[in-house]
Design brief:
The complex is a heterodimer of chains A (about 180) and B (about 170).
Chain A: H1 2-20, H2 33-42, E1 43-46, H3 51-64, E2 68-73, E3 78-86, H4 90-103, E4 110-123, E5 129-141, E6 146-151, H5 155-169, E7 173-175
Antiparallel strand pairs in A: 1-5, 1-7, 2-3, 3-4, 4-5, 5-6
Helix pairs in contact in A: 3-5
Chain B: H1 2-7, H2 24-31, E1 32-35, H3 40-53, E2 57-62, E3 67-73, E4 77-87, E5 91-100, E6 103-104, H4 108-122, E7 127-128, H5 161-166
Antiparallel strand pairs in B: 1-5, 1-7, 2-3, 3-4, 4-5, 5-6
Helix pairs in contact in B: 3-4
The chains are: A alpha+beta (about 180), B alpha+beta (about 170).
Chain lengths: ~180, ~170
């Protein structure tokens, strides 16, 4: 009993500290080697001077992928889009069923996700325009709580995006 | 213990509406830099590129208003709004403010890191706001002397500096 009470106290102390005293991680706004690799992954250079057409093509590809456009600012080459999707994963469901059967515990599993994209064009000279896409997602569980927030960094996702975009603009997407 | 935990929190959450940090002057100084350029478009585009480099997804950008907002998700939520406006005839003032989850960022270090990244991308030196006497101390980290040529800055990505700067 004493043990239970003590662990309850520790948990409570931790929760109260976390809830009222959050500090930003030191590396949150620090450029790193990883940021350089990510830039290469998320950027392609297109041999064109027509920024508007490139943005229109970019918006088209985002729509092809089921994104809705949230914001755009053509003067700065910005398109912001998002989509809400199912986030259920078979493994988690199996785990939750196992927990329910074995221990009678209701484990929350991932339910919904919002995937956000920003597509930015930036002319680097009179003949070339860089296009960079960044993706992230927020996942909510079956209890409506945010269970995960993350940047999407899988190379194949960006490769696929740029392959679709190249087809759409009839231009070669050059690696930077 | 429980009481201690509770006293660390606020008594009424309504206070947050008009809440601001102890010293507005200090906050403004750590969040603001000036650049010797009048090109707002270039500045805003560079701000966007820098935010992307730092792992942000852009939320909004408004050329007329001169603001850019972005969110970084990495197990936490970091929101940043950067505004750009003219200062005198020859300079541009850039102000950034960040919110980490539900807490405003009032530590100078993250802002210094942001402006270090931004000045590299701008190829320009970021000047701190003319610090008034005692508050000059807190700007000791980046108060570069004014030069027309951008001073060579040490790069974090040292093995590929040329590619990094070209982009």
């Amino acid at each position: 009993m004493k043990m239970v009470f003590r662990s309850f106290l520790i948990v409570f102390a931790l929760i109260s500290l976390v809830a009222c005293n959050q500090t930003i991680p030191k590396e949150a706004l620090q450029l790193s080697q990883e940021s350089f690799a990510l830039r290469q992954l998320q950027t392609r250079a297109f041999d064109t001077s027509d920024e508007k057409s490139l943005l229109v093509a970019g918006a088209g590809v985002l729509q092809d992928l089921g994104f809705n456009i949230d914001e755009s600012e053509i003067n700065l080459g910005v398109i912001v889009a998002s989509k809400d999707r199912d986030a259920t994963e078979a493994g988690q469901i199996a785990g939750a069923i196992f927990m329910a059967v074995m221990f009678g515990v209701n484990t929350p599993v991932d339910k919904n996700q919002k995937i956000r994209a920003s597509l930015i064009t930036n002319p680097i000279n009179t003949k070339q325009i860089n296009l960079r896409v960044t993706l992230q997602r927020i996942i909510w569980n079956t209890q409506g709580q945010v269970s995960r927030t993350e940047s999407i960094t899988q190379p194949e996702i960006y490769q696929e995006f740029f392959s679709k975009l190249s087809k759409s603009v009839f231009l070669e997407a050059n690696e930077i | 213990m429980a009481c201690l935990g509770l006293t660390a929190c606020q008594t009424t959450s309504m206070n947050q509406v008009m809440e601001s940090s102890g010293s507005q002057v200090q906050l403004r100084q750590m969040q603001t830099r000036t650049f010797d350029t009048t090109d707002h478009i270039k500045t805003l585009r560079t701000v966007i590129a820098t935010l992307q480099d730092l792992g942000f997804v852009i939320d909004k950008a408004d050329h007329d208003l001169g603001t850019v907002s972005g969110t970084k998700l990495d197990g936490y939520q970091l929101r940043m709004t950067v505004s750009v406006r003219s200062k005198g005839q020859t300079q541009t003032l850039v102000r950034a403010n960040a919110t980490y989850n539900v807490t405003p960022v009032e530590d100078p270090l993250p802002y210094q890191q942001f402006f270090t990244a931004l000045e590299k991308a701008m190829f320009l030196t970021a000047h701190t706001e003319s610090p008034s006497n005692e508050e000059a101390v807190m700007n000791k980290v980046s108060a570069p002397t004014h030069t027309d040529e951008p001073a060579p800055k040490p790069l974090e990505v040292e093995d590929k500096p040329s590619i990094w700067e070209e982009l």
